[in-house]
UniProtKB/TrEMBL annotation, chains A, B:
InterPro entries: IolE/XylAMocC-like, Xyl_isomerase-like_sf, Xyl_isomerase-like_TIM-brl. Keywords: Isomerase. This is Sugar phosphate isomerase/epimerase. Gene3D superfamilies: Divalent-metal-dependent TIM barrel enzymes. It comes from Paenibacillus oceani.
């Protein structure tokens, strides 16, 4: 299958270089000529939204997405309302930072009732849509690997994310496909095709064998078993030609020098994605 | 929802008390008046098949299943043939031990080609069915949690296991539903109903938050977030009234005294399953 010919679509998801602050991450992208960056809210908060925007803009970078909104289900009405407030702030930040994609990590159930939590997620997205639309921001539902169902998100397959997204207009709500979360799914390729017109992002890393850690065990592309190129081609065949984020939670990668990490990412991106 | 009124259907899956040998596990069941036991092949091998059979039979225990056949995909034809040989031995052992259920943990791909591995699993089961039938043994496809897709099984949802089982006669091939592996699945209850007439086992443990370990992190029933009773009722509504295996991979449980472990299992089984 054909390789990517250049890094025009490569985006550094900021969590991949979590030890770098906003300025350092931006400078690494510039030196590596990586044209896109995906921002995380805790990093944006550190630098401030206005300063983050200035740093990114002055560097000529484009922002592929802001991570993350979501975490909708809560044990009390007050807590749920607080989380909706926080999601509205996330929408405002996305707009101010110049991206039209807010990634949603929808959150776990506060108790054993996963069905109710899923219902809450759907209602919360419906509530958030008009606000997001008015800010020019789309909501990207990212299904998370089932191993995170109890701790991070009750949305765990692309089929489920598609069903949820299809309740809304394509202009408002889509899906974000992260290879690490969905690679195992027997329905993957049918669901990628089903997502046509709603794919708001494609994220890459790899699944290492054996898995070293539930959260921090993602691998550099090429170090694991995911058919990254096949999936990228399928996402493209379904109409997505936007940025491809490299999002790796891995302490070894975090411990690398930023410039070395970017160099390795570029090499692996061209070789494996 | 209604509780189980007694422990008539309770089965000790032998991995739950992995530090006990065959004789010790059998004796613990007898003292606890647990009527069923599920055997693992490495334990059977330690004691010998004939001696295992004698111990179980003399104690008046019934064997709910033998774990496990499977691990079909292999890198070479020779290795694949060797695994088929081993599966035939597993069928023979199941028959000799007096159970009609051989649990299949289908195995990972030897490379990145998960589709091919899945095809191999289907072909291997087709090859094994006549042999198993002639021994009065049913093959129970157990979907494993997607986090084990790269290391233990490429069969990762109940939908997938149902589709695979449906290629065969109900008398020959069914599914084994383990709460730990499937609890997160948005399609779970529809797929349990779909499995009607093919459910060959129901296994319980719990999903602890946060997950302490990928393999050894299963919890005692009641210590986690799984709706075990709801799932048991659904499995019953789909026609299954057979043994319920308690299968817990957890070092703390392994470190317990056998009698204390069985006492706790009985208590939690009646309270939570």
């Amino acid at each position: 299958m054909e390789r990517l010919q250049n890094i025009d679509r490569l985006s550094l998801n900021q969590i991949t270089t979590d030890r770098l602050n906003m300025r350092e991450a931006v400078e690494c992208c510039v030196r590596a000529e990586v044209p896109w960056i995906a921002l995380w809210r805790h990093k944006v908060a550190e630098a401030g939204v206005a300063e983050s925007r200035r740093l990114v803009k002055d560097a000529g970078l484009r922002v592929s997405s802001l991570c993350r909104g979501g975490y909708f289900p809560a044990a009390t009405a007050a807590e749920r309302a607080a989380r909706m407030d926080d999601n509205r702030r996330a929408v405002e930040e996305a707009a101010e930072l110049g991206t039209d994609v807010l990634v949603l990590v929808c959150g776990p159930a506060p108790d054993r009732d996963i069905d109710y939590a899923r219902k809450t997620v759907a209602e919360s997205i419906a509530e958030l849509v008009p606000f997001a639309r008015s800010h020019g921001v789309k909501l990207g539902i990212e299904p998370l690997h089932p191993m995170y169902a109890a701790e991070r998100s009750v949305i765990n397959t692309l089929a489920q994310a598609n069903s949820l997204a299809e309740r809304f207009n394509k202009q408002d709500v889509g899906v974000v496909i992260d290879a690490f979360h969905v690679w195992w799914d027997p329905e993957l390729y049918a669901q990628i095709e089903r997502a046509r017109g709603r794919i708001l992002g494609y994220h890459v890393s790899d699944w290492i064998v054996p898995v070293p850690d539930l959260l921090m065990g993602r691998g550099m592309m090429g170090d694991g078993v995911i058919e990254l190129r096949r999936m990228r081609k399928a996402v493209e065949a379904a109409g997505y030609d936007g940025p491809i984020e490299v999002e790796i939670f891995n302490r070894q990668v975090w411990d690398m020098d930023g410039d070395e990490a970017l160099a390795l990412i570029k090499e692996r991106y061209l070789e494996h994605v």
